[in-house]
Structure formats: structure tokens, C-alpha cells
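Before going further, it is useful to explain how the protein records used in this thesis are read. An example of such a record is reproduced below.

***
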Amino acid sequence: MVKKISAFFLTLLPMLIWTQQDTQIAFFKKHLQLYNPAATGLENQMILSSTIRSQWSDVKGAPNVQLFNLSIPEGEKRLGYGALLMMDKTFIEHQTRLFASFSYRLPIGEKNSFYLGVQGGGNHMNLNFNDLNLAHKDDGKLENLTRFYPNIGVGVYYKMEKGFFSFSAPMLFGHKNKKNNEAISPSPLDDPHLYLSVGIRYPAFAENWKYIVYTLVRWVDNAPISSVINAGLAYQKSELLFIYHHNSGLGVSALFDNGGPISVGYAYQFSTFDLLSKLHYGNHELTQRIRFNNKKIESKELDADEKSKDKLSMN
């Protein structure tokens, strides 16, 4: 069994290292800050979100992701700021991404807002080929790598009463502009990723119920376009969604949120890709969101609104 797993990962190794695509998670709407810095400070409370994702469970060395993001709004100044930490482990590759993000809100009408976002940080990469059981460990083509790659990202986010529109490039700098097809290169080969996300919520069959649809589309050179659609029902803040990942997998997610300080969710996905579907292992994802009561921010927003109304009445 161990030999089969090793052979399987060796088959995927060039794909895992060469494409270096960003992680896509089931609860991407709750972690949109991962893909778009403009999605920072969207709510009127400080929120700490965390997710643990385990792919191909029970397979040694399978992808494992831990994600944390902090979002803090500043109502009076229309600023949002936050932080993102992601640890991604896949076979011999370990990545740690750390970014600080900032957004600026532009009110449009009474209920809509347009956000501009920027982030700065980088990705720490570690490739350890010593973990491979190779016949020729002195192969110069397989050199261990430990390096930090700085990067910046930008994005825009349009918030509406019944939905949103998001477009971003979370990491603008690529690490290498050509591939070595004759050997496995230890150098990361990231190409800039572009993300488009759209979401809608509209009334359903009864009060407090809504139909919801979230989409996330990714463009990157040297890889096919990736798209995810989450669709289902919401009762107040709780959600039950079906997940469709184009040419990749299907799944379901449930988020339990009673409006209190803590909400939790679980998602399960299985692969429809021929090679991975033979493993008969699914992907499990746990998420948690913690809201911190921030009356100061709420009062500032109310004060700002009252001041603007007073100025209009005086005029």
C-alpha cells in the first residue's frame, strides 16, 4: 500500500510543483479575503475565521490546509484591515503564506458600497526531497529549497443588498517565467492568478429563508480555468449548500450560525477526476468564525451617518 501511495504521489509530483495553483476551499465565501484583499472589513464587527481542510483523508502526505484570517472594520474612516495566515502541506512541499490586507470603502447610494483593496506579504516555501525514497539521492536536479517570496495583491469588491461582485489578483508577482520539462524543478513556478467571484441572495418560499448562489472562477496561465459553484438555501445566517467544482468534484456544506459570537461549518467533497476518484477518499473541511462585539465601530458609523444627515438638513 505504501508503495502504491508513493508511486501515486510521484506521478502527481510534477503537476503539484509546476502548476502551484492557489488552494480552493469549500467555504470560500467566508474566506474571500484569501482571494481578494478588498473583502477585508466588510462587516461591522471584527471577525476571526479559521478553516482546516484535509484532502484524500487517510492517504499519507495528502494535501492539508490550515487557514486563518482576521478582518477588522473601521467605520468612521471607511477603512478595513486584516491579516491572513495559511499553512499548506502537500507531500514534500510545505508552504506558509502571510499577508496584511487593507481596504477602503466608497458608499454608492444608500445600500451599496464599493471596496478597493491591497495586500502585502509573501509565501515561505519549503521543498524537502529527503523525504523521498530515491535510488539516487545525489541527483542534482532534486535540490531542497527553503525560501521566502515577497508579493503584493490588489482587488475590488462591490457589495449590494442582495449580492456581491469581486475581482482580484491576490499575488501579482510570478516566481519563475519558464519551466524545465526535463526534470522536476525545486523552484516554485507560480503564475499570477485572477479571481472572479459573484454571489446572490434572494427571498425563498418563506420568511427568513433565502436562495443563495456563490461562484468562484480562477484564471491562471498554463492551467485550465477552474470554477466552483455553491448553491442552496439559507435560514437567517445558517446555510446548506451543494458544491460543484467543474471537472473536479462534488460535495455539500452546512454552516450553523444563530447570530451569536461563534458559528461552525462542515463540508465534504469527493473527486470526480478519474485518477483521484480511484482512491475512494473524500475531502473534509471544518470552519469556525468568531465575532467580537465591537460597539465602538457601530457607534462611529451611526455618529458619521447622523453628522451627514445634520449637514444635509442645514444646507
